[in-house]
Design a protein that fits this description.
The protein has 264 residues and is mainly alpha-helical. It contains 11 helices and no strands. It has helices spanning 10-32, 44-55, 58-91, 93-106, 115-122, 126-150, 154-162, 167-205, 210-219, 223-251, 256-263. α3 (58-91) packs antiparallel against α4 (93-106) and α5 (115-122) packs across α6. The longest helix is centred in the C-terminal third of the chain and has 39 residues, at 167-205. The protein is elongated, with a radius of gyration of 22 Å.
Length: 264
């Protein structure tokens, strides 16, 4: 039996590229055939021309830098905090039981609900973006770390305890190897969520970045420019996801899932 194509292999990449080209072709055809008004959905060719103009504008690159800054700082803070808090809570059964209801209460609160608080505390600056990004991305990492620590083999845990391993040694040699695949999954999810919230904060609050440029283009009826900026946001998300998956595979080269994927 022929094995199915790998989700990350060259065949999948070819299909993904074909799907993207099919989408661009559809956007080109729909407004030109009158199915959709070009006032609301310009053809791909017009969007690409607007994209070329944006790429030659220094203000666009400054906005892109602002978005990436908010994304990177927020993601870094969320990952560090999520790992530290997750290991601490997951390693102490009392803390896990005491914080379970609090975590389940806070986690479903959407970050956009914190926008009034963010504006009140930080105005329209970078701090508001960081507050939303960190809050949303933190839970992605924390929950995965808790799942990873919960998945530690009880026999391995008891063996480490019987050898009188200290807390740091248990974390390093017992908890971390088991939790690392979960951590990397959390980081990958958090990276995508962080980008979404960074652009959302810029779009709604008006913080400097791609989101604020999209809002300006929308209010000024610059529809092709708006779609060009949206395309940039989509490409940025795609690149971040590919980078996160690459880091995940390299960090987990020893793990069974990555070895099996390489074998396919």
């Amino acid at each position: 039996m022929t094995p199915p194509p790998s989700a990350t292999g060259p065949g999948a990449a070819t299909l993904g590229l074909a799907g993207l080209l099919g989408l661009l072709l559809t956007v080109e055809v729909l407004p030109r055939t009158g199915v959709v008004s070009a006032d609301y959905l310009p053809p791909t060719s017009r969007i690409v021309r607007a994209l070329a103009v944006e790429l030659n504008d220094r203000a666009f690159w400054r906005a892109l830098g602002d978005t990436l800054t908010g994304w990177a700082l927020g993601l870094a803070i969320a990952v560090v905090a999520g790992v530290v808090v997750g290991v601490l809570i997951g390693s102490v059964p009392f803390l896990r039981a005491a914080t379970a209801s609090t975590i389940e209460f806070l986690r479903p609160i959407p970050s956009v609900a914190l926008i009034p608080l963010a504006v009140l505390l930080f105005g329209t600056g970078l701090g508001s973006t960081l507050l939303l990004v960190v809050y949303a991305a933190f839970w992605q990492v924390l929950i995965q770390v808790l799942y990873g620590i919960q998945d530690v083999d009880p026999v391995t845990r008891d063996t480490a305890r019987s050898y009188n391993l200290g807390p740091w040694a248990r974390v390093r040699h017992v908890l971390w190897p088991t939790a690392l695949p979960y951590v990397m999954t959390g980081v990958r999810l958090a990276a995508a969520v962080a980008l979404i919230l960074a652009i959302t904060a810029e779009l709604i609050i008006g913080s400097p970045g791609l989101g604020s440029r999209i809002a300006v283009a929308q209010t000024s009826q610059a529809v092709p420019e708006m779609y060009a900026l949206i395309m940039i946001a989509g490409l940025l998300g795609l690149l971040i996801n590919l980078a996160a998956r690459t880091v995940e595979r390299r960090a987990l080269f020893w793990h069974q899932s990555v070895r099996g994927e390489a074998a396919l």
